[in-house]
Design brief:
Strand order of the largest sheet: 2-1-3-4
Number of domains: 2
Number of helices: 4
Structural class: alpha+beta
Distance between the termini: 34 Å
Shape: globular
Amino acid sequence: MHSLEIDGLTKTYPGSGFSLDKVTFSIPSGTIMGFVGENGAGKTTTIKSILNTVKIDSGTIKLLGTIMTDKDTAIREDIGVVLDAANFSGVLTPARLSKVMNGIYRQWDQQEYIRLTEKFGLPMHRKLKDFSWGCR
């Protein structure tokens, strides 16, 4: 089984001159992959397509053997993505962020979250915008 299968992914942004054109690859289960390329090569667009946060023009994307739709919240419980920037509001605190995540993920582990924030010295009531880039 493959963790990820992409077949013929096409995505264009009209007027931008950018397009992904029939991107095809698969990642076997248990594999760790790095996604490297020049700026503007389409890495972020591919990731957003995989996560179903942008509408693709054509092609298929399967995560863990399933095509993810907007209704497929369960599959999101089984994947993890680390992007170069968090898209959380800067006015959130780690304490508030924990409540948000607890409402999204059925398997949220509050004790582990607290353990990690303490391990990394993250004040629970400081706004995210006041953290260094690395701590965000």
